[in-house]
Amino acid sequence: MKPQWRGMDAAAIPIRNRALVSLLASTGVRGAEICRDTEDDRDGRQGLWWGRVDLENGALRVLGKNQQWEYAQLPSQAQDHLRRHYDVQQPASNDWPVFPTAHVPSLYRTIRRELRERGWEDSATESLLDDQPPKEILREHDISPPAITVRGARTLMKRLCEQAEIDVEGGYLKPHGARRGLGDLLYRESAELAQSALRHESIRTTHDAYSHIDASETAEAVSDVLSGAWKNK
Q1: What are the structural domains of the chain?
Q2: Of 4, 27, 141, 195, whose CB neighbour count within 10 A is largest?
């Protein structure tokens, strides 16, 4: 019987989840920029690696929507959670994903594929899997686990919303909803700040995305003017 292992230590999962939620909520990154896209095998769509996280300078290197490598801002709130996650995860190398999958079959497939490519006999691999949990094998043989998928991140967000009894339109907070929420908050402070944080190529893109805020604030100002005018009649 193979060792029972859930992909990550139980105590590490909440720390990973907080780091993921904090990253989505404060950086404006897209789900496909930090999670694995099963429909796109390019390097930049296989998850965010620790080697592309600069905790000291507050930046992430990601493959943007325009298919160009970009630096996304990483505020202190997310840095703190990522540092804690790093200390607990203790990645074997900078090539490890920041958010590895906890899906056990995916880990077994990765180990079998990698060892087969290195010339291992299938029988030797199965014997190794019988003797050691995947977590130990990955570290011992310097095999990077796959990152959590975009779909997996959505499923996780849905579960976290249900656990926290958060009721939102659409059923749960999707990763892109965090980007929209950050943009809404920043745009009210400064359109230029929102543009920079969300990495829009043009300020017009930012204005178009959050024009509802301008309309709402204009409506409030007009209401104040009309209230005063009508009151004086």
Answers
A1: 12-102+147-163 (1.10.443.10), 174-231 (no CATH)
A2: 27
